[in-house]
Specification:
The protein has 92 residues and is of the alpha+beta class. Helices cover 40% and strands 30% of the residues.
C-alpha cells in the first residue's frame, strides 16, 4: 500500500531539513512507529519512505508491503496511518 502527498516545495527550507525529517519519521520502523503498529497487527512486513522534488512541489511517499492479512484489512491500515499522522500535527 502506498501513500503519496504532494506539498509545497520544501527545498527553500533546506536549512531545516523538513523533508528529510518527515521521511525519517514516516519510514521509522522502531518503537512507536506506524510500521510497528501495522506489524503487531500482522498487517505489514516492511516500510519504505521517500521524497522527490518536482517543479514547485515536493512528493513525500510512504509504502508498506502488506501481508495477506493487511490486504484483507486495507481500510484499517489506512485508518491507522491517518490516525498516526493526525498525532504528528502540532498542538495549538
Amino acid at each position: 500500500m502506498e501513500f503519496i502527498w504532494v506539498v509545497e516545495e520544501l527545498r527553500p527550507l533546506f536549512k531545516h531539513h523538513i523533508d528529510e525529517y518527515l521521511v525519517h519519521i514516516l519510514g521509522h520502523e522502531g518503537e512507536n512507529s506506524i510500521f510497528e503498529v501495522l506489524k503487531q497487527e500482522g498487517f505489514a512486513s516492511s516500510a519504505t519512505s521517500y521524497q522527490h522534488h518536482v517543479v514547485h512541489a515536493t512528493m513525500i511517499g510512504l509504502e508498506f508491503d502488506l501481508t495477506e492479512e493487511g490486504y484483507e484489512h486495507y481500510e484499517e491500515v489506512y485508518n491507522i496511518v491517518m490516525k498516526y499522522l493526525a498525532n504528528l500535527k502540532p498542538s495549538r
